[in-house]
Design a protein that fits this description.
This protein is an alpha/beta fold. It has a domain at 3-138 and 188-206: 2-enoyl-CoA Hydratase, Chain A, domain 1 (Alpha-Beta Complex), CATH 3.90.226.10. The protein is built from eleven helices and nine strands. Strands 1, 2, 3, 4, 5, 6, 7, 8 and 9 form a nine-stranded mixed beta sheet that branches. A hairpin with a 2-residue loop joins strand 1 (18-20) and strand 2. Helix 1 (3-11) packs across helix 9 (195-205) and helix 2 (48-64) packs parallel to helix 4 (90-106). The longest helix has 17 residues, at 48-64. The protein is globular. The N and C termini lie far apart (47 Å).
Length: 237
């Protein structure tokens, strides 16, 4: 589903969301309140420029509309792999974006991530994975890297990684594997009663802003030790 379809399903005509190249920004009316929209489209590679534009949009919401909920619409192929962006400090720009999202959360803005198309690598880590909770559509594609690329990096045979992906979601791409690991909290089904709006309504009503990804991963069998190790570390302190 493209961003036009997502926005129509969520807000009907009650929005001023626009695309400026790969950058999405605007606001929408939802259940009598206003939601700020920040995101990307066209499988955007997130370079220093796009990261800074998204960060500026989040800062503007904090300055002009304290407490307003922010919906991150995510469609990215990951960080832009160009020397130009590296020289201009893409790592600092993406870190700045993540810090801005974290600051918005600390100042009382509900920040909801929605992977509506594609989410890969650093472009996802510094957006949806820093939100209060990240959700996805059933047909979305989420992964850190493809198995052939993973094989080149790890020097392990593709067949071995394919087998591991069948048994362990950590090695496997796909929305439902990220749900099992706790990185994605829920999948919003467009065919469900009230459609995508029901998913957003439930996400905004969830008052728990605690990062429970490790606990979810343990309960769902996708990350069986992360929460336990964290608890042991805290107990040792």
């Amino acid at each position: 589903m493209n961003w036009h379809g997502v926005v129509q399903a969520l807000f009907g005509g009650s929005h001023d969301i626009r695309a400026d190249g790969d950058f999405l920004v605007g606001s929408a009316g939802f259940d009598g309140a206003t939601v700020a929209i920040v995101g990307s489209t066209n499988h955007a590679p997130v370079g220093y420029a796009l990261a800074l534009r998204q960060a500026a949009a989040v800062l503007e919401v904090m300055a002009r509309h304290p407490g307003r909920a922010i919906l991150l619409l995510i469609d990215t192929q990951g960080q832009r792999l160009r020397r130009h962006d590296e020289l201009l400090g893409i790592h600092r720009a993406m870190a700045h974006l993540g810090c801005c999202i974290d600051l918005a959360r600390r100042r009382g803005h509900r920040v909801i991530g929605l992977v509506y198309d594609q989410a890969l690598s650093g472009g996802f880590i510094t957006s949806g994975l820093i939100a209060d909770a990240c959700h996805a559509l059933p047909g979305a594609e989420i992964r850190v890297m493809r198995i052939p690329a993973m094989a080149r990096v790890t020097k392990l045979p593709e067949a071995m990684l394919e087998a591991l992906a069948q048994a362990d979601p950590v090695f496997a791409p796909g929305v439902h594997n990220y749900v099992r690991m706790g990185g994605v909290r829920t999948v919003w089904d467009p065919a469900a009663p009230a459609g995508l709006a029901a998913g957003l309504r439930a996400a905004l009503a969830d008052a728990d802003t605690h990062d429970r990804r490790a606990e979810d991963g343990r309960a769902r069998g996708g990350r069986r030790l992360a929460a336990t190790v964290a608890e042991r570390v805290l107990a040792a302190d």
